[in-house]
Every structure is written in C-alpha cells, then in structure tokens.
Amino acid sequence: MTLWWIGDIVLLVVILPVVVYLLHRVLGVARSIIPSVRAIAAVAAAGSKDLDGAALLLTTRDQATETIAGVADYGGSLDVILDDAA
Amino acid sequence: MLALVAAGAVLIVAVVLIVLALVFYLVSVIVALAKITRGLDDVISAVGEIVRKSAPVNEIVTSINQQLDAGVDALEGLLVKKAGMQDAVGLVDGLYSGAAAVGFRNFPESTTVTPPRIAEVYTRGTLTLARLGREAPIAAANPAGPVLRNVEAGSLAARQLYPEIRQTRPEHLQRSPVIGTDAPVQYEQREDIGAPRKRLPGRQTATPNGRPDATREG
Q1: Mutation target among A1, A36, A38, A66 for the B interface, most CBs of B within 10 A
Q2: In this structure, is residue B169 part of a structural domain?
Q3: Of B55, B82, B105, which marks where a domain is finished?
Q4: How far apart are CA B10 and CA B5, in angstroms?
Q5: ipTM of model over 0.85
Q6: Residue B100 domain boundaries
Q7: Residue B46 near residue B74, CB atoms below 8 Å
Q8: Could you report the per-residue pLDDT of B180-196, keeping only the tens digit for each?
Q9: CA distance A33 to chain B (A)
C-alpha cells in the first residue's frame, strides 16, 4: 500500500511536470518556426519578383551584340582611315 | 480497503492528467506543424520561380561578357595599333587616372610603360578646356581636384550641352509631323514647281526704249 502511494506521488509530482515541461518546449519550438517560415516565404517571393527583370537580359544581350557589331564596324573604318602608329 | 480505493483513484487521476496534457500539447504541435507545412509550400513555390527565372541568367551573362570582351579586345588592339603603346597608355591614363598601372588586357607589356603627360597626348586647346571646366573626363587627373561629374555614370552635363527639349523630360513632346499623300494636312500644290521656266536665267529682256535691262540680268 505504501509503495502504491509512493508511486502515485511520484507520478503526480515528478512524471506529470516533466511530461508537461517537455511537451511545452516542443510546442514552443514548433511555434517559433512559423514566423521564420513566413519571413522566408516573403523574402523568397520578393526575390522572385526581383528576378522579373531577368528576362530583359535577352534584350541586353541582343543590344550588346548589336553595339559590339557597330563598334567593330567603326573600328574597321577607323583602321582603314587612320594610319598606324608604327 | 478505503486506502486502497483512494490510492487507485489518485493513480487514475494522475494518468488522466498526463493523457490530457499529452493530447493538448500534441494537438497544438500538429497545428503548428500544419502551419509550417503551408508556409514551406509557399517558400517552395517562390524558390521554384527563382530557379526558373534565374536559370538562363548564367548563359546570357556569359554571352554578354564574351561580346564585351571581344569589343574591348578589338578597341584595345585598334588603339594600340593606331596610337602606339605609349600614347595609348597615356590616353587611357588621362581618361581614367591610374589606369596605366593596370594596363591593357591583351598587352601585358603595357603595365611597364610610363604614361606620358596629358599634354603630350591631347591638344593644348583640349587640355585648356578641361582645366577650365573640370567636367570633362580628361580632367580626372587635374591637380585642382577630382572631376565634378561622374565620368562613368553621369550624363546630365553632356545632355545639357544640347538644346532644351528633352533634358527636363517633359510628359508630352510635340509629335513629329505626318507627311505623305495620306497626311492629315495637305498643302496646296504649286503648279510652277517642277514646271519649265518661263524665262531662262541670263536672258536679257528688252525695255520699252529698246535697250537691254541690265538690272534684270540673272
């Protein structure tokens, strides 16, 4: 009988508080992840929006190609017009 | 007997309390994990967009760099060919102070060239204008101080050299006139334009007194 009462007391005084403490810590950690995930989602969405202009790189590449071609044409003409230094 | 029943009741109460605590906290954890899952779905969607949008960037930027490299190589080669190594280094160093130490990419020996003074590359008038205005890129090495404008990105000073039409970026510019047969404004067509001349130039007309009119000679 005495051992039973001792078991009850241990269950109420030790086991139950430990279980509650551990579960409370797990819940706290799980809840702390939520704002971080939301912040990451917002940042990822902003990053995706920032990359909307990446498609314009195609235009930039074409214009760079045309510009270099024009520069090459001018350079060829200058090469013909101007005398060499040596 | 009564003590035995009481001990059993206490045991049952303790077990029920533990089970209730387990249920409450585990359900709360499940709800939190569900929110995390939904948030991660949003993250995965946005990251997928980032990956999709940034996929061609590397290839395109590499292509642009190759084009620009080719342009730089061609211009450097042309400059060295036409101006000579020493004057080319001096010209570049005059435009971008300190650039002579870096030298040309395709001419490693250019780093050993002592850049001549600006006056030896540019004309005296250009140098005078640069010293007066201190806005031209040529004045980057002016002893009076750095240039007033950003020679790499600033364009206002250059744009202000042109008539005041687009500098203030007006919302509505005057539209260009429409010309052609279907233009909204048709001008009257003069019959004498394009027709044979009634009098050839240089032909003298006779005056009533029979003498040629010298004042109407063409």
Answers
A1: A38
A2: no
A3: B55
A4: 9
A5: no
A6: 65-159
A7: no
A8: 777 777 777 677 777 77
A9: 7
